[in-house]
Amino acid sequence: MSDLPVERFTVTSGPATLACVRFGAGPPLVCVHALAFSKEYFVAAAAVLGRAFTCLAFDQRGHGETVAPEDADALSPAAMAADIGAVLDAAGLASATVGGTSLGAATTLRFALAHPARVDLLIQDLPAFGPGPQRDAAHSEAVAAALAAGDLDEGARRAAAGLLPGPARALAATLRAQWQPFPAAALGPKLAAAFRATAGWRVVDAWPGALASLAVPTHVLGLAGDGGHPLAVAEAMARTLPRARLWPRVPSLKPTDVARQWVQVATAPRPGGGRAAGAAGACVARAVPRTMRRWDA
Predict the structure, then answer these.
(1) What is the SS3 assignment for 11?
(2) Contact 271, 244 (CB under 8 A)
(3) Average pLDDT over residues 93-121
């Protein structure tokens, strides 16, 4: 753990009250978590992230300490993307580097498409949605049912079902650690609503063509063998976005491991124009040495 000071505050965004944190020093970085995770994932890596950036993280709707309606409209891609703008406004920032993992990648991509001038650099970590969500609907509902009943332990077990033994243990352990600070009776139904609402998300109407007009420099992190976050989605993004580079994603759920890679890509030279970035990404993907078979907890 870090002894870096962490400021906790709330931001109003439409009908939602977003629970937020701020820590570190340097250029601004907005961190948006994955489905079923929380802002505390980034707090756990404050010692790494905060050395390079002033970090803003918040609990997305349906997660953590954020209070929001649990209907489909309140948990839509547009509504949740708008929360990023509210956080930037509250911090007095015209723009920032914006990064997100999985569901957070979808939210940040939607925000960048709507407000490209507010995104200095975009990090797409394990993008999952592509032409539509990659989650199995029955699996999502099974997880949601356990969470709605307040059984977080069973929810974590079901969330990890179907993965290889190593990744399954890593995911279940990470989710339990993420959920531990929050009362199960309050968190479970909230997460269930998020699982159900996002199961049918389409982030863009025309995939991947709608990305061709987004000129924001983008780093895309993809991992071979991850069925929930297909490498093909990351590859398509890297080929289509005009200024993108594809990186092999670190095979780990440890907050500090992921944070080190975020710092690496966020401080790397920004991808240039043209299609060279897509070609380079394809080269990386062919030789990607990292797979979910070696995913660490």
Answers:
(1) strand
(2) yes
(3) 98
